[in-house]
Structure formats: C-alpha cells, structure tokens
Amino acid sequence: MRNYKSIKNLGHGSAGSVDLVENIETGNQYALKTIALANMNQKEKESALSEIHFLKVLKGPTLIKSYQSYVEKDKIMIFMEYAEGGTLADKILEYKLAGEAFDTDTIINWISQVILGVMLMHSKNILHRDLKSQNLFLISDGTIKIGDFGISKELPSIDSLAKTSCGTPYFMPPEVCKGEPYGEKIDIWAIGCILYELVFFKKPFESKTIYGVFEKIINTPLEHTYEECDENIRMLLMALLDKDPSRRPSIWELAKTDIIKYYINQFVNERGLHEEVATVFEC
C-alpha cells in the first residue's frame, strides 16, 4: 500500500470495506476492497477467497475488472475498477427523490448490458446468485457492470442444480424461498427484479419481515399492473418473474429475443467489442 493514497470510503459492511485509492506514481484510481478474515469461520473464509478466483476467471465488458489481489495479515486486498457513477441503486434513489423516471431506451439498454454480463458468467458455468441493483456499477461512459462475486458459485454444468441458500431476500426466486434446489434461473429472476425496480422504483415483493417477503414471492402476484409500462418491458417482466423456473427463459433464450438482441448488438457494435464477446455467442 506504500504506492497508494486513500481518497475516500465508498462503502462498508460486516466483513470489510471498499475505499477509493489512488496510485501515487500514475494517478490511476481503483476501488480497493478489504475483507477481514480474522473473525470468519472456515466457510466464510472460503467464500471470501472465492471472490478472488471469480474475479480472475470472469472477464468481459460488462463485468467489473480486477487488477490485483493478495492476502496480507488476515486481510484480503482486492484492487478493482472504480465505477465513478456509483451503483445502480444510487441512481434509482436519485431519480426517485427527484420525481423523475428512466426512459424506456435507458432501461432496456442497461438490462441488456446486465444480460450480456450474465451470459459471460453462465458460459463458464458460474452463477452470480446475488444480482441486485446494489451490485451493479455505472462507469463514466455509461456502461453498467456486474460486481461483487462473493457468493457466486461454479457448477459442473449450467444445467446442474445447487442447494445452498444464498442471495438477498428481495431478489430471491420462489424456489430458493422454498428451500428447493435451484439452477441458472436464479439469476434470471434477479434480472427481472432489477428491471421491475428500474420501472417502478420499488422491489416487486416487499414486506416488513423476511417471512412476509418470502410469502409474497412464493404466492402473491405482482402488485403493479403490466399495463403501466412499455410493451417490451411488460413482456420481459412476465417472462423473467415467472414463479415457475422451468418457464423462465435461459440467459441464451433471453439474449435471442428481438429487443434484447437489438440492444446487445448495438452495444457491441458501438464499442467494437466483437472479439471480447465472440466466445459467448458460440455457446
């Protein structure tokens, strides 16, 4: 850390913090994630260390970049790309407080970039398992990037099922709430929750208790009527937030829908990303 100076704290949680740091020699800025291992049990340590693995494996234009990481004195230090625009959750709150709404073009563009990022993950048989607006980051050119791979999970194949409970309650799909095995469709549901939040500035299922949230996710239809939004968004919400995971589209099926395919192609063409994403479209 001798070559870096701390600029400001970007956030903190029970396991550690994220700080904006600057390289004294180059002036380059990074988000430094520090995870304290001292008070963790073995399972928690393994989960923390897995983030280093996934940051090394996962590369793509809509995934947060990792530059270096190491363990030092019972702490994990991860130098990552700094997202100047903050989180998508920050942006949603900003618009909500200002009484403004996101236009349809912006919403579908962002969701398409998230879908591209999940395609990159699923192509390597990796589930994110905690997709939410707080884990999506905006960089200076307007690109949205997926971050926080702390509880991501690698499966033998993308069709395999996992059993470990995970994620944030508001974004959990019915199968996880019921304690059933789950697969890739857990991330599809979460994309639907993010899309819903972008449109209505609230979570699709809310309650004062976790039990209440789970009960609504499992049994209650969405509160808002689909007639309130654009037809393309309405169709996406119906597909992504289907309570039956077998009826939810895979990430590949989702990417082939006309509207998402159009926006992904536009994003790739405008930024000249054909080589970076070529392997994904071969899956």
Automatic annotation (TrEMBL):
Q: Which residues form the Protein kinase domain?
A: 4-268
Q: Does the keyword Nuclease apply?
A: no
Known catalysed reaction(s)?
L-seryl-[protein] + ATP = O-phospho-L-seryl-[protein] + ADP + H(+); L-threonyl-[protein] + ATP = O-phospho-L-threonyl-[protein] + ADP + H(+)
Record-level Gene Ontology MF annotations: ATP binding; protein serine/threonine kinase activity
What Enzyme Commission number does this protein have? 2.7.11.1
One Pfam family it belongs to: Pkinase
Please provide the record's keywords in A-Z order: ATP-binding, Kinase, Nucleotide-binding, Serine/threonine-protein kinase, Transferase
User: Which InterPro entries does this one have?
Assistant: Kinase-like_dom_sf, NEK_Ser/Thr_kinase_NIMA, Prot_kinase_dom, Ser/Thr_kinase_AS
Q: Which SUPFAM superfamilies match?
A: Protein kinase-like (PK-like) (SSF56112)
What superkingdom heads the lineage? Eukaryota
Major enzyme class: transferase
Q: Does the keyword Protein transport apply?
A: no
Q: What is this protein called?
A: non-specific serine/threonine protein kinase
Specify the species. Answer: Euplotes crassus
